[in-house]
Amino acid sequence: MQVSLLAQDLKVCYNLQDHEDIILKDREDRMSMANVSYQSTRGGESGLTASCAILKGLAEDGGLYMPSYIPKLTISIEQLAGMSYQETAYEVMRLFLTDYTEEELKHCIHSAYDSKFDTEEIAPLREADGAYYLELFHGSTIAFKDMALSILPYLMTTAAKKNHVENEIVILTATSGDTGKAAMAGFADVPGTRIIVFYPKGGVSRVQELQMVTQKGNNTAVVAIHGNFDDAQTGVKRIFGDREFGKRLAERGFQLSSANSINIGRLVPQVVYYVYAYARLVRDGRIQAGDEINITVPTGNFGNILAAYFAKQMGLPVKTLLCASNDNKVLYDFFKTGVYDKKREFILTSSPSMDILISSNLERLIYLSTGCDAKVNKKLMKELAQTGAYTVTDEMREKMADFESGYATEAENGAEIKRLFDTAGYMIDTHTGVASAVYRKYQAETKDATPTVIASTASPYKFSHSVMEAVFGEQGDKDEFAIIDELCIVTKVPVPRAVEEIRNAQIRHKRECDVDTMKETVAEILGV
Ligand SMILES: *Cc1c(COP(=O)(O)O)cnc(C)c1O
Questions:
Q1: Order of strands across the sheet with 452-456?
Q2: Strand pairing of 293-298 and 452-456?
Q3: What separation in Å is there between the alpha carbon of 372 and the centre of ligand 1?
Q4: Which of 31, 325, 456, 509 has minimal CB crowding within 10 Å?
Q5: Element (H, E) at 196
Q6: How far apart, in whole angstroms, are the C-alpha atoms of residue 174 and residue 270?
Q7: pLDDT by residue (tens digit) across 232-267?
Q8: Looking at the predicted structure, is the pLDDT value of residue 332 above 90?
Q9: How many CB atoms neighbour CB 122 within 10 A?
Q10: Going from the N-terminus, what domains does the chain have, and what CATH number goes with each?
Q11: CA dihedral over 518, 519, 523, 524, signed as positive or negative
């Protein structure tokens, strides 16, 4: 049985053969009842339950897990418009995580999206100069990673119970600055788990670094590596792929998992806020149900924008997905030319969480654009690993036509942060600045008047030095917390709890290592 509800390009690969025996009144019911299973983008594994895919994080063949089909939303936009964030989360997530019971999933959702967030709305939408900024930074570490990482620990411990896992789960995570802290905030002192975070020394903001090295919890470890984010991410992937090491860990009662955005348990919760934002626009009378919107996302590892694409595939009326890059514009070049080429200088920018040359989640889009041909995808990924580049066909590019791309230089980013503050009194962070600048350029060029949601991925407080410099000029070597207090005075936005917490906190993590000793470092931390 083909799933004809799906977008044209997905038809070929997603079918429900296994579920032909499910006879239901209409297709809608059939879609919602059928179990979604998970398969590797490189063909080595298939038929996994959602909980199993979340537990494993990354497939053994190095591929990423993909759902066997992308389910359609089963309730109307009008219904969604009346729902809270938590209710929306349940309606979206239950369609992907089909082996979680209603009780389990609701427990995860309500444990995650509670007073850890400093606003009841969880993800408020703020209009400024004609665009809608979706504020995804109201969680405990003031970046959008909290949206998924506050629920992942619950999804994972539930999955461990469901699958009768007795090993201790060791979360290995590479971070470009925000994932590490958000993951530790979620996993700190969670029984049955340990978490080890690798971050690029000198490659994150002062606040980001302080947030990580002051992390409490008996099960947390933080390591600064002498390398950049790509080195950290590649190193972590290598450890996952090391079967012998895996065996050694298993003998000592450990098993690895990932909190990086390659884990499907991060992607699925991120779909929620795009559905929520759309419903919010309808409820507020900004658009009519069915009207199209555009979505602009400041992009690094391609996880956040991929979630927006999933929302579109679920039936959310989205026209264009605008992928915004900083000076590390590997994705911009890819969408413009069809050539993905990471062989270039790695540039440190004021939007460090986007300083990435290997965007892991792009593999999921590549896989879809091949018609879910794992062989073709695997060959391209092998080329990337061996030669540093690959080229996609015109046919594949056509299937990615929903994406537009742009990039903003450091100067353009700073100018946009200043412009928006001066004209609308709204301060955005350096990542949102990239997205905002790219959106304004796109709009000037195309005259596309479609209402646009811009993913606002971090609080300006996380990048106080850069945003104050953008608006008021050189900050010299002023103390970070002096700048934070000035930011509070000019914006009248209270200093978030997450910043107050680190003002006088004790430094607890001082470990450093070279890129090629990451495995030994993990072994040492675990004592194996
Ligand atoms: C992680 C991050 C991004 C990039 O998101 P991806 O899902 O990796 O593309 C953008 N902005 C901020 C503040 C982030 O922390």
A1: 125-128, 131-135, 452-456, 293-298, 318-325, 403-407
A2: parallel
A3: 26
A4: 509
A5: strand 193-200
A6: 19
A7: 999 998 998 899 999 999 999 999 998 988 899 999
A8: yes
A9: 26
A10: 125-142+265-460 (3.40.50.1100)
A11: negative
Structure tokens at 19: 């579920």
Using the structure block, give the residue that is written with the tokens 């479609």.
450
Widest Cα–Cα separation across the chain: 69
Q: What separation in Å is there between the alpha carbon of 167 and the centre of ligand 1? A: 31
Three-class SS of residue 339? Answer: strand
Ligand 1: which atom is nearest the Cα of residue 178? 15
The residues lining ligand 1, judged by C-beta closer than 6 Å to any ligand atom, are 143-145, 178, 261, 298-304, 353-354, 431, 457-458
Q: Are strands 131-135 and 125-128 parallel, antiparallel or unpaired?
A: antiparallel
CA dist 122 and 353 (Å) reads 22
* Residue 120 alpha carbon to ligand 1 centre in Å: 23
Distance separating alpha carbons of residues 474 and 434, to the nearest angstrom: 20
Residue 197 identity (one-letter amino acid): V
Counting from 1 in the atom list of ligand 1, the atom nearest the Cα of 299 is 9
Distance CA 148, CA 514 (A): 29
Residue 455 near residue 304, CB atoms below 8 Å: yes
Distance from C-alpha of 499 to C-alpha of 464, rounded to nearest angstrom = 11
> pTM for this one?
0.91
Pocket test for ligand 1, best of 137, 146, 178 (most atoms within 8 A of CB): 178
